[in-house]
Amino acid sequence: MSAVPGSVFITGTDTGVGKTRIACGLLHALRNAGRSAAGYKPVASGASASAGGWRNEDALALQAASAPGLAYEAINPYCFAEPIAPHLAARLAATSIDLARLDAAYAMLARAHQHVVIEGAGGWLVPLNDTHTFADWVQAHQWPVILIVGVRLGCINHALLSAEAIQRRTPLLGWIANHLPPQADAGAEIVESLRLRLPAPLLAQVADGANRDQIAEQLSAIVAWSPQRG
User: Fold this and answer.
1) What is the average pLDDT score of the chain?
2) What is the pLDDT of residues 6-24, one digit of tens each?
3) Phi and psi dihedrals of 166, rounded to 5?
4) Domain 7-222 class?
5) Torsion angle defined by CA atoms of residues 172, 160, 176 and 197, in that order, rounded to the nearest 10 degrees
6) Cα separations (Å) of 209 from 21, 31, 46, 110?
7) pLDDT, mean of residues 101-121
8) Is 19 a catalytic residue?
9) What is the DSSP letter of 114?
């Protein structure tokens, strides 16, 4: 069974497949094992106004699941109001996403914590700006990737394409089958088809309706690791 390295990038086959749900479960599993862990949502699109500025629901969930005391801005340096692709949301906000700023925020988290769980936006090749995608940024760091597969119609094609693209650039640590409502016809058969075809291990299956503690328990098997930064 693969172990969680110091830093891991969570991507999905699409938007709405449960990346945040799994990332938070992994953070709780790491912290339950006595590890210091922080979530990182470098770019979030779709936010509500607050007294402290724009706040994204997924980033807030990661903050709550992380080691205590982290400011929102430490976890989510770019937060945009519109729920659209990050480079488009940045354009509407009359700015652009600077990878150096993303790197600096990551470095601060990595210095203070044994683990950083980094959550992307949408899928693997989502653009960050006019010249770079999430894939480019992750490749530059060579972070290992966990692919979240939302088990639903069409996921086999999406998962196989995503895995092929990821492995061209950086290690694919494994994949997690996240069962989504409504329950997919032949869900078990879909997972087995992917297990036989994907070039990385199935790390866990998460049932629809599983709560935080149940997800953390399912992910606890991949938390044991040799204490060195990955």
Assistant:
1) 93
2) 999 999 999 999 999 999 9
3) -65, -45
4) alpha beta
5) -90
6) 11, 22, 24, 32
7) 97
8) no
9) S
Residue linked to tokens 């599993």: 29
Cα separation, 26 vs 218, whole angstroms:
9
pLDDT bucket at 84, cuts 50 / 70 / 90: very high
**Among the residues of the chain, which ranges form H helices?**
19-32, 57-65, 72-75, 86-92, 99-112, 134-141, 155-167, 187-197, 212-219
Q: Which of 19, 28, 35, 41 is catalytic?
A: 41
How sure is the predictor about 65, in pLDDT bands with cuts at 50, 70 and 90?
A: very high
Does the pLDDT at position 230 exceed 60? no
DSSP characters over 150-194: EESTTHHHHHHHHHHHHHTTS-EEEEEEEE-SSPPTTHHHHHHHH
Query: Highest mean pLDDT range out of 45-54, 99-108, 181-190?
Result: 99-108
CB atoms within 10 A of CB 141: 13
Tell me if the bond preceding 144 is cis, omega within 30° of 0.
no
Rg (CA), the chain: 17
